[in-house]
Protein 1
Amino acid sequence: MAIGDLVLCTWQPSIRGVLNNTARPIKHMIKGQYGIVTNVCDPYRVAITFPGLCGYTHYLSPNAFEVLNARR
């Protein structure tokens, strides 16, 4: 997987993240949405931007999406 890959989200997280020991709710339903890999932070966390959700970006595990079209 690399920056620019087209992916399909296969898992819906329940929170956006934790801020000041408080879980922040996710604002969008991303399961079933197409996205583009915009940053590969490490082997465990990848930033996916969802154009259909006005450019919303969410960090996901590689297990939470399926690569549809790998950039070469």
Note: The chain is about 0% helix and 55% strand.
Protein 2
Amino acid sequence: MQIYVGNLPTEFTDADLKLMFEPFGKVLAASIGKEPGYGFVEMQKKSEARAASDGLRGKEMQGKPLRAKILKPGDEFHKQAQALHGNSGFKGGAQQFRGAGGVRAGGAIRRGGQRGS
């Protein structure tokens, strides 16, 4: 699973990013973006990625709260993450998902209310 991480200290390296996520599980790839301050991480298991995202989101680093978001096909940073990691880190990428343009097919998830209304 791919994770976007924002508000990183500008001196953070790929190795620092990987070390930050390793306590949550196996990190397949970690890269700082083209400009300092953000990066991308891929973790092997969804459960580990979610735990890392939840555990690190809002953690204060140099006076700024970290941003951590699980990426889905179609997200703003999804293609950028794939470009940074190439085929070696991010397995499958958008081709894992069904639907046009790498967007997951399905439908809306209804929460509450009555069906068919």
Note: The helical segments are 14-21, 46-56, 78-89.
Protein 3
Amino acid sequence: MSKNKMTFEEALAGLEKSAADLIKPDSTLDETVSNFEKGIEYYNMCKDILSEAKQKVVTYSRRGDSDAKS
């Protein structure tokens, strides 16, 4: 699945896997760096998805407030 089209749950699972892979004792330095980079990408995806969801909640809350005042 394209990273741009991932759900929060998919991105979180990727982040968890990257974190688990980071602590494997038999990983090479290159593998560790690669897992770290992937983890950062998944973290940023999760953060972006949550930020977008928060903005939607704020928008809908404001709409609800204005409807209540009418």
Note: The chain has two helices and no strands.
Protein 4
Amino acid sequence: MLQKFFVNKNVSKKLKLRLRSTIIDKTLTYASETWTLTKRDRKQLNIFERKVYRRILGPVYDSEK
């Protein structure tokens, strides 16, 4: 649902990051106090978070070589 929004060039990165922290974090952590997180679960959550950041920030080119 939010894929097109995060890729949209007309929306600022600042707004995308703010929405990520409010919408996605609250959705992912809903009732999380009842979860038992394993190492695999933490790894999967980190992978998902990095994927969202990549969508928001787009390609990053390293200027130092």
Note: The chain has a mean pLDDT of 76.
